[in-house]
Amino acid sequence: MFEKEDKEIVARVLDGSVEDFRLIIDRYQQVIYNLSSKLTGDQEDAKETTQRTFVKVYSNLKLYNPKYKFFSWLYRIGINETLSYLKSKKEHLSVEEGHFTTYEGPGILDDSGEKEIKIRKAIKRLKYDYRLLIVLKYYENLSYEEISSVTGVPVKKVRSRLFTARQILKDDLTDLL
């Protein structure tokens, strides 16, 4: 959608128009924040990783190859920054009730929210690689091809890992459903 315009903005920033970087931030800040929020389960962590993402994007903009989609490049940096942040906080697999109180994903099963909380906890318990794919597919609504582009994982492997992730969730949630 914005691909041609993004590449033009990047070219202007690289030519010295630093203020044009604000256009990239305005366009993608919410997208990166939402991704990070779903992966971390915490608003403050999501704000921190969003900020880190844009600092990294700006400092590495000269490395962006315009042959590829800018959004995929930026999104990948967002994923990597979130993963690095989680590892540094040693929260990679933690499940804390407080992380889910501010999470704003789609309503999943019922009005009481109990089932939704259990599903979120089950997703949070997934190994990071599986959790990432579930978030990208079912919360960000990316296609297999888009997920492949963003993660660098071949489409066939994306399908396979998503199948495995769904099986793990199914086994973890059998008493719920």
CATH homologous superfamily caption of the largest domain: RNA polymerase sigma factor, region 2, helix turn helix motif
The tally of helices reads: 8
Give the domain tally: 2
Biggest sheet details: none
Radius of gyration: 17 Å
Q: Estimate what percentage of residues fall within beta strands.
A: under 5%
Succession of helices and strands: HHHHHHHH
Helix content: 55-70%
- Please tell me the overall pLDDT: 83
Distance between the amino and carboxyl termini: 38 Å
SSE order and pairing:
Layout: H1 3-14, H2 21-40, H3 43-59, H4 70-89, H5 114-125, H6 128-139, H7 144-151, H8 155-172
Brief descriptors of the model:
single chain; 177 residues; mainly alpha; Rna Polymerase Sigma Factor, Chain: A; Arc Repressor Mutant, subunit A; elongated
Write a structural description.
The chain is mainly alpha-helical. The chain has two domains: 1-95, RNA polymerase sigma factor, region 2, helix turn helix motif (Rna Polymerase Sigma Factor, Chain: A); 105-177, Arc Repressor Mutant, subunit A (Orthogonal Bundle), CATH 1.10.10. 67% of the residues lie in helices and 0% in strands. The chain is built from eight helices and no strands. It has helices at 3-14, 21-40, 43-59, 70-89, 114-125, 128-139, 144-151, 155-172. The chain is elongated, with a radius of gyration of 17 Å. The N and C termini lie far apart (38 Å).
